[in-house]
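Tutorial handout. Part one gives the primary structure; part two gives the three-dimensional structure as tokens.
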Amino acid sequence: MNAINYKKQFAQNLRDLIGEKSITSVAKDLDIPQQTLSRYLLCQREIKLENLIKIANYFEEDLDYLVGRKI
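Part two.
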């Protein structure tokens, strides 16, 4: 899987995890700017490792799951 596919898979998995919650509330909980989180969802921004870990911890998910390496 190439980097673009990882980014798309991450965005889809993140959308699934956010579910019915608002992007604004999740961004606030994560202490990540809402615009940054939105850009992750739109595959317009590379995610920093620090933010990837924040998201994994927040949703209690494995990093490999978030980037599509594990189902």
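Part three, for discussion. The chain has one domain: 3-63. The first helix runs from residue 3 to 18.
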